[in-house]
Amino acid sequence: MPAAAPAFTLVRAGRVACRIVVPAKAAPVVRHAAEELRRLVALMSGATLPIAEEGAGGDGPAVYLGPTRKAAGLLASGGKPSAEDGVAIRTAGRDLVLSGGNGRARLYAVYVLLEKWLGVRFLAHDCTVVPKRSTVTLPEINYTYAPPFMYREALYWDAYPKETAAPQRLNGPATKCDEATGGKVAFFPYVHSFCKLVPPEKYYAEHPEYFSLVGGKRTNLTIHGQLCLTNPEVLRIATAQAMAWIRENPEIPIIDISQNDGEGACECDACVAVEREEESKHGPILRFVNAIADDVKREHPDKWVETLAYAYSTKPPGKTRPRDNVIIRLCHAGCYHHGFEACGLGANLTTYLEGWRKLTRRIFIWHYAANFAHYIAPNFNLQGLAADLKAYPRYGVNGVMVQADHQGPGGELAELRQYLVAQLLWDPTGDPMEIRREFCAGYYGPAASDVEAYLALVDAEGARKEVHAFGAWDPTGTVRPEFVARGLEVLAGAREKCSDEAVRNRVDKLMLPHWYAQLQWPDKYALSAADAPALVAKFRRVVERNQITYIREDFNSPSMPGWLAEMEKRYPTQGRKTP
How many angstroms separate the CA atoms of 271 and 252, rounded? Predict the structure, then answer.
């Protein structure tokens, strides 16, 4: 059966076959979208499509991008996106329309078109795959899509630049997305804001009663210390501060009113009475947040108030419901390896998700994905991470942030995980294994099959039912010596297939977790004293080439230099004096 004739042609035999048309006085994001379409089609075909303003003359087939009159007419009969980040792509006669629910989505429509129909893959900060073809055609298209997660954030270092975040459709506040890339979903402050609402350095000396009573004493700690949420003066001060934040940051849509890090809930009689009435330590928090949200709504009906359900406060309250302008950000708990639905370690998260879903229509998730004590060590969470991201929409979740090795580049499997996360945040129905295959094919080239074999080893370790992991853990309890040895064998074979130095370096980065285990625990992972100095030198070369500066989460200073110095002291080169 012959193939259907193309419905739209962008380039024919290396020659331009259409124009890109944008509105007169187009917004910066629409201009950027047009430039991105032109740039990537030129990389694909060698032909540079002209960009023209609507009404400026010209004829012939056109790609109408953004809120043009032509696009409005074509989309009026169907195909209009249903949500703010939703995209609409439609062929109509001799034209193609790319549109979206907001400026950001109009840019996303370009990337979705290139990805879904033209084979472009935005794999990583250092790798975009653009297939080469002299003729660029499209079939008939009538496509609309809105992601279930309106807030999509991946806290990987290389997800922050707008050049990566926008094509991967990541829109969180940590990205550098600006007006030209459609902006982002912004919060102020980010989280843990009690200490900023009522600063202890300003109030504690004269009013210790504003702060949480812990073990019979009021505390001014900003970690493991909170506010006395039933104190009316605390509410008055906090409300005034929240209103000031909105005035000072009018462009920010979400104001954060959330507990400090750690524990330290107030144990005064009034706060404990609320906890008992609500059968939850979140009771005092939600009543406090609701009161502020009421004032926010009266003066700023377009603003949201976000609060955490974290640490001691994850259980939903029994009586109080969040106001309709309140977002609950529930923090992840569950086994990395198996996913929260498949493992008893996530039983509470499942219960709490079901509970919060009954109370509110706006739930964000703070999801953990790295071993925060050992960024570089093997972490067998690929299957569990994908399972969790695919599960969240079933619980009414509409925003997810995945926290990983956020402080610097090059954590264990960071590029693959970032791409996997970005793809599943945009479309949780995607096939994780297919996403992994396309990443390996594009990122590792001739070594792709060996890297896939290596990832199968990772999956096999993660499938072990008796081994669990969450948050920060000792890798010696999860990483078997046979995995380290076999993984290095497979990756050595992969490296031999790489003639390109950049690809070989990517394989070297895959070896770092194994070298880290050997250097950190030489007896367990069979590193001889004779081989250790050379391995330290090799490790240093790879981390310096890739500017990897953190071995663990550390908010004081980069942790990699100190760790390398420790290794060089532990394994001195023969003949060199130990410092």
Answer: 31
